[in-house]
Amino acid sequence: MCRTDGGQEPTGTGDGERTDATFTALLEDSAEELYESAPCGYLSTLMDGTIAKINATLLDWLGLERDAVVGRRKFVDLLPMGGKLYHETHFAPLLRMQGELRGIALEMKTAGGGRLPVLVSSVVKHSSGGDPLLIRTTVFDAADRRAYEEELLRRREDAEQARAQAEEARRQAEADRERLADALAVLQKSLVPDTLPAVPGVEAAAYYHTAAPDRLGGDFYDLFPLDGKRWAFFLGDVCGKGPEAASLTRYTLRAAALHDPEPAAALTTLNAVLHERYAAGGDPRYCTCIFGTIEPDPGTGEATVRLASGGHPPALVLRTDGRADFLPTPGGLLVGVLPTAPTGTVQTTLAPGETILLYTDGLTEARTGPRRDDLYGEEALRAFAAGHAPATPQEVITALTGLLKSLGGGLDDDTALLALGVPATRPRTHPATNHSR
User: Fold this and answer.
1) Which of 12, 186, 208, 277 could form a disulfide with 82 if both were Cys (CB 3.0 to 4.6 A apart)?
2) What does residue 259 show for φ and ψ, rounded to 5 degrees?
């Protein structure tokens, strides 16, 4: 309120006018301006992944131009090779099933060739009739953890103000530990199949020894169909106990084999994925791995096996004449160490009654004496196998399980075993079995 007195100009509060002007300017921000300059990235894609809309914040982070992105590229194009595989095998299928994903850690490529660590949340938008229309995605810069730290501080202050809330936090922490234990168990199972599939004309058996129940290992194996005639199998060990890398390895090999079933090609793809995802980020992870295909011949009762190895101990073949011979795969290097790694391929034929054994070095490097170099070794394994040849896959695994138990405390590493063989008599088809401890 103001008044005039003696013809003087009405007096106002200058500070109040400036505050009103500032407030008015804030209200004039359009929704589009707020979207473009938001502190996080936004993009909308069609259901096939084609980018339909992207805000200026995300474009600036990635160093991209809008015209080069909208309608021209898909969301998966913004990811490196490892992220693309994860998107196709995990992210996209889960999003289709659940309709939304929250806080998924990914990396995005920048125009300068760098990597931007981000947290991604995506939601599928549907029409009134329930049909999926588009995907809206929010991208947070994971390098900036200020919001996370502020949330932790707020929770700590709340806990200090109320003992009741502190007790609730303690109970919640206990529940979190239980969930973590469950998650560890689930993740360990992701490294090996629950059961092996039944393969016509082939018997299969496997065993997994866990060195410590509270520690995730890095051994992995799998057996799965390729087409109507061939089956793929692999077994390996991630060096340094990397369960995340082991899980990525298993799913990468499955995807690579369906694209190109040649064993050497599958290991080449795995090498590229591991090297790009880990070595480029300064946290190298590598593995030894042996990958093969088996093709039973219903006419002869034999099976053709093709193998490629990346620095892995050689497979062992138990023949019907009582021999047990290693099947070397020369030229294979550790997978993931170098950008490219040569891989050799070897082929053999399993006659009825013959078995091929794959194993990780937890077996051959088990200690048999007080000295560090008192190891079981490959020659002892060959002699042990020869003493049981010929044998079915299940008989081989049963014998080796007993051997592992006899080693006691000398077996301080995870050990995976996978045996495949041709039945001695036809047309008997023995169901595949799987044992783990």
Assistant:
1) 277
2) -80, -45
